[in-house]
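Example record for the data management plan.
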Amino acid sequence: MRNSGPGERTKQVVALCFLLALAGFAVAGPTGLLAWSENARALDQRHAEIAKLTEKRDALRNRVMLLDPDAADPDLASELVREQLGVIHEDEVVVTLDEK
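Corresponding structural encoding:
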């Protein structure tokens, strides 16, 4: 039989406490098993946000291309000039057509 003195017993208790703490963090820690579903949900939200921002960026990129000084779209230029100068009448309606 082994000689289990008070020092050996203390080392075993400390090692057991350390292993239990590691197991607790593995299950309930910020990157543990319980946090996976929350992290997956946050990732899905970020992907949706990225998709919306990408769509908005593409729309702005298209508008910038239409305002190119060398080849500006006359309808867009007219709309912007009238809007900025305040010469759009209240009874006028601007109709935009989505090109797909």
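Summary line stored alongside the record: Helices lie at 6-28, 36-66, 74-85.
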